[in-house]
Write a structure and sequence with these properties.
- By secondary structure, the protein is of the alpha+beta class.
- The protein contains 14 helices and 20 strands.
- The strands form 5 sheets. Strands 16-13-15-14-18-19-17-20 form an 8-stranded antiparallel beta sheet, with helices on both faces. Strands 6-7-11-9-10 form a 5-stranded antiparallel beta sheet.
- Helix 10 runs antiparallel to helix 11 (369-380).
- The longest helix is centred in the middle third of the chain and has 25 residues, at 240-264.
- It is globular and about 60 Å long.
- It starts with 5 loop residues before the first strand and ends with a helix.
Length: 432
């Protein structure tokens, strides 16, 4: 057994593979897969580790995508860009900006590898634009037999629909072709708002904004809301001092210290949350889209997130508040709520339904099991779908009830990886 050679960002899981490799191109990935087959090893490709589950863990051959980091092409006229699997999303954004284009939507963290983010269903918030996988228009993959294939809506559509959010179960994704749009600015409006007002005005807030999200501070009735809408310009970014104060000092340095204190003295959490929920004042600014979408998250945490039918959100949040108010848990991290339109990606958490995302977090090292279990019971009571890369306890018997195309996706998996070369313990739990 080797020493730990890879672990998740929050150190929730570690991998002890038989061996590792960092192939430099698609042909080298194919060769690595074939060599693993000769040795009887299973194969997984990791990313940046921002998943909290063991989705990427293997005891066989662990592939690192660090050398697969080129942007192969950007075609503004066609509205597409092809990028290799291992390029971090933040670096891809910079290259797109140089060509005058951008992704239509993205999540609030941008350090994940492109393949890792797409394969686990990373999303942001949007009224009309969905998660990263819904912006994929083509994939290059290495299959279990070492063959290199390309798939798209017109070329092996079954594999395409299955593998966009494929968890690495269908093959090693080596490149992705993304839909892009002309670069744009976002006007961000951030302000506190009582939770009851947010819930009452939810239809208006969602319909009236291209990107709306909010953070509820447990043990309080307070939220911080964020509305992002396309703007004509000019850019009016936050000043360097305000950026440092809000996004570095308060949201990272101070928040880290506060959570350390709360981990030692949980009884302080309600009072601290009341202060924290008022610490960030309202602000408005206009900047390049990806700079508004994403922010720096240095404070380590453990997260569970569920995608629920949007029509159940108000009831779910009221029940979540009732559980917190009951006093069994001390929760120092805000609860994050985002939205996505229905998409057609078979294993996407937003497949076929208007979706609200509810994410619960705890500071790294703080016990989370009881809190997450109580929240998970609420989420699953309305047919929630767990984020594939975040903590959950669901298995295939549950997931096949909430994913109507799961059976078709598994039939594709039987076709392209009958021997489960790309399997691991996590996939055995969720896919069978």
């Amino acid at each position: 057994m080797t020493d730990v050679s890879w672990h998740t960002w929050a150190d929730t899981y570690q991998a002890r593979p038989r061996r590792t490799a960092a192939p430099g191109d698609t042909a080298a990935v194919a060769a690595a897969v074939l060599s693993a087959a000769d040795e009887g090893l299973r194969v997984r490709m990791v990313g940046s580790g921002h998943s909290f589950t063991d989705v990427a863990v293997t005891d066989g051959l662990l592939l690192s995508p660090t050398s697969l980091a080129a942007v192969r092409s950007v075609d503004p006229e066609a509205g597409t860009a092809t990028v290799e699997a291992g390029l971090p999303l933040c670096d891809f954004n910079d290259v797109l900006a140089e060509h005058g284009v951008a992704l239509a939507n993205m999540g609030d963290i941008a350090v994940q590898t492109m393949a890792g983010a797409v394969q686990t269903g990373t999303h942001g918030t949007g009224r009309d634009s969905g998660g990263l996988a819904s912006q994929v228009v083509g994939l290059e993959m290495v299959l279990a037999d070492g063959s290199v294939v390309e798939c798209s809506p017109d070329r092996d559509p079954g594999l395409f629909h299955s593998a966009r959010v494929g968890l690495g179960a269908f093959g090693v994704v080596t490149a992705l072709t993304m839909a892009v749009r002309p670069a744009f600015l976002l006007y961000a409006r951030e302000e506190p708002m009582p939770l009851d007002e947010v819930l009452e005005r939810l239809p208006e807030l969602r319909a009236g904004n291209e990107h709306f999200e909010f953070f509820w501070f447990p043990h309080t009735g307070n939220t911080n809301t964020k509305r992002n809408n396309t703007a004509a310009g000019p850019t009016r970014p936050l000043s360097g001092f305000r950026t440092w104060l809000d996004d570095d000092f308060l949201s990272n340095t101070v928040f880290e210290r506060v959570n350390r204190v709360c981990r030692r003295h949980p009884r302080l959490v309600p009072a601290v949350n009341r202060i924290s929920s008022r610490a960030l004042s309202a602000r408005r600014y206009t900047d390049t889209s990806h700079k508004v979408f994403a922010s720096v998250r240095d404070v380590r945490f453990v997260e569970m997130e569920y995608a629920i039918p949007a029509e159940h959100l108000v009831d779910v949040l009221r029940e979540a508040r009732r559980i917190v108010d009951r006093g069994d848990h001390r929760v120092s991290f805000p609860v994050e709520v985002r939205f996505a339109p229905a998409d057609d990606v078979w294993l996407s958490t937003a497949y076929g339904r208007d979706t609200a995302y509810v994410a619960v977090h705890v500071y790294k090292g703080t016990p989370h099991e009881a809190y997450f279990a109580d929240m998970e019971a609420v989420f699953t009571s309305v047919g929630g779908r767990p984020h594939w890369g975040k903590m959950h306890t669901r298995d295939r018997s549950y997931l096949e009830k909430v994913y109507p195309r799961l059976g078709e996706a598994l039939a594709v998996r039987d076709r392209v990886d009958p021997g489960r070369r790309f399997g691991n313990d996590y996939l055995e739990r969720v896919l069978g």
